[in-house]
Each structure stands twice: as structure tokens, then as C-alpha cells.
């Protein structure tokens, strides 16, 4: 994946820790925990001066919290569809 | 899909944020008006449904219902970590420097994992952590 925009300076590399914890608690998925681990790698690598590694870990932390959010939303959407279908089926069966 | 699109400039992002805002608004509206302990149309925790394990997020829906009604004690009974995490996450969002300490993510990780394990232990005092 090639980035068109210039690389941000080292101190602007985010670790997305808050996002990671939020998706862990609300989306209820192990993906959030993976994101927390990558957040810690960002800090460790920054402290060690490994800017490139920190950037990669940051990208992964972001990727995992976004996927955790998508997975959480997908569960809600699927659940809602099943719920609506279930109610519709229930009404159709026992309604009249 | 949205991962790649998110790096593109604004129009898609605006749409994405608007969508999330609408979903969040709907969720808050439903949660404010319906008690998840009494109605059963709220999604159940997938980890709990599939494996029977109480994960660190289990009880969050019910906890949020109680929080929206400012009943912090009941919220705490459903998911204490969720309640405690709100001021902590607020601090982190306000002062991002906190998240940049090397130990911070590890401390968070450890708390979440240990909490997730202890929630599943039977008997006092671990029952207090259960959803």
C-alpha cells in the first residue's frame, strides 16, 4: 500500500489506545485487544527510535480497531435483521 | 473497503461520521427508552452467545442503560470496568500524552485481560465483576 501523502513526523504517530479500549469494551471482540497490543508496540518502538516500526504498528493498531468496530456493527445489523425477520415470521404465524 | 476509503479526503469521511452519529443516536434513543433487562431485542454479546464466556465487554449494554439514567450503582453492577473506564478514557482523550507512555498500553492490556479472566471465576469477590 503506497501512501500518496507525505509521512507524518514521528511525534504525530498515533497509537489509537483510546479507540482500541472503546472497541474492546463496546464491540466485545478480541480484535480490540489486538489493537491494544499494537498500541503498546507503537510506544515501545518510538522509545527505541524505530520510527518506521512505530509507523507500521500504528497502522496495524488503526486497522484492528476499525475492523473491531466494523465487526461490532455487523453483528448489530445482522442481529437486527434476524430480529425483524423473526418478528415478521411470528406475526405471520400466530397473528390472525 | 472503508479502510482504504478512509484515507481518501473528506466526502466519504463525512458520510461515515454521519452514519456513525445516526447509529449512535439511534442506539442511545433505544437504550434510554427500553430497559435491556426487560426487553430482548438488544443484541447479545456474541462472545457470550458463542462460547458462554463473559468477556470484558459483557454487560455493557445494560450498564449503558443505567448510565443513561444516571444510576451509576446499577451500571457498576453490570460492568464495573466500563464505568471506571469512562473517566480514564476521557482523561486520555483530553491529554493524549498519557497514552504515549510506554507502560500505558500494557497496563490497559493487563487490566482488560485479567478482568476478563476474573469475571469468569465463581465465588466471592469475583461475582461482583460478573455481568
Based on the model shown, name its key terms:
heterodimer, A: 96 residues, mainly alpha, 3 helices, 75% helix, B: 131 residues
Structural topology:
The complex is a heterodimer of chains A (96) and B (131).
Chain A lengths: L16 H10 L3 H18 L3 H44 L2
Chain B lengths: L1 H6 L2 H24 L12 H6 L8 H9 L3 H7 L1 H15 L2 H4 L2 H16 L13
Helix pairs in contact in B: 4-5, 5-6
SSE pattern of chain B, N- to C-terminal: HHHHHHHH
- According to DSSP, the number of beta strands of chain A is 0
Shape of chain A: rod-shaped
The fraction of residues assigned to DSSP E strands of chain A is under 5%
Instruction: Measure the end-to-end span of chain B.
Output: 34 Å
Number of helices of chain B: 8
Strand content of chain B: under 5%
Low-confidence stretches of chain A: none
Tally of contiguous helical segments of chain A = 3
Mean of pLDDT of chain A: 83
Helix content of chain B: 55-70%
Overall radius of gyration of chain B: 17 Å
Distance between the termini of chain A: 58 Å
**From the alpha-carbon coordinates, what is the Rg of chain A to the nearest angstrom?**
20 Å
The quaternary state of the protein chains shown equals: heterodimer
Q: What is the element string of chain A, with H for helices and E for strands?
A: HHH
